[in-house]
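Moderator note: this is an archived Q&A kept for reference. The question asked for a predicted structure of one protein chain; the sequence and the answer are reproduced below.
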Amino acid sequence: MSTNNQCGLSSDKQEKSMLQQLLDQWELDYNRFSDVLGIDRQSLWQYRTGKREFRLSMEQIQRLEKLLKQVDKTFSDLPSDWYRDREVKNPQ
């Protein structure tokens, strides 16, 4: 029986979101990802939970494209909800 406390993962969590998978590949956490893109951490949380519409400036899109290139992806490879947490239900 092993748990991965280093990454904060538990065996009972649902499938990782696309953002979580990318962060693993980039070896970034949410805070560092926010810093790299120049996104306020609170805004990133609101994007992830669906409380705020996801928006990036052109400069932020360019930074994201550079990150995606590191893992052989492009922005168009991402699903429309790539930044959303899987365990969060749609707020309606």
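Archived answer notes: The two ends are 39 Å apart (CA to CA).
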